[in-house]
Amino acid sequence: MKKIKLKLFVYFLLATIQIYAQDGQRTFAGEPPIGTVPSNLDFDYQLKYQRALEAHL
């Protein structure tokens, strides 16, 4: 009986966490927060700079 109650409690917690995480205000794992911008706006320049630095070393 204790195992069943424990399983139900765990399932309830997991369901609650899923609902809380998907309320529309928070992002999913791996996504940047809403309203942020990239730190580097010119990715091609950064890539060329990095390749030149690696070639120099």
Your description of this structure?
By secondary structure, the protein is mainly alpha-helical. 60% of the residues lie in helices and 0% in strands. The protein contains two helices and no strands. The mean pLDDT is 76.
Amino- and carboxy-terminal Cα gap: 66 Å
Topology, number of strands: 0
Task: Summarize the helix and strand pattern as letters.
Answer: HH
Please state the average pLDDT score: 76
Strand coverage percent: under 5%
Overall geometry comes to elongated
Share of helix, binned:
55-70%
Largest sheet: none
- Name the quaternary structure: single chain
> What is the count of helical runs?
2
Q: Residue ranges: pLDDT <50 for 5 or more in a row?
A: none
Structural class: mainly alpha
> Gyration radius, to the nearest Å?
22 Å
Gist?
The protein has 57 residues and is mostly helical. Helices cover 60% and strands 0% of the residues. The chain has 2 helices and no strands.
Secondary structure elements and pairings:
Elements: H1 2-21, H2 43-56
Which tags fit this structure?
elongated; mainly alpha; 2 helices
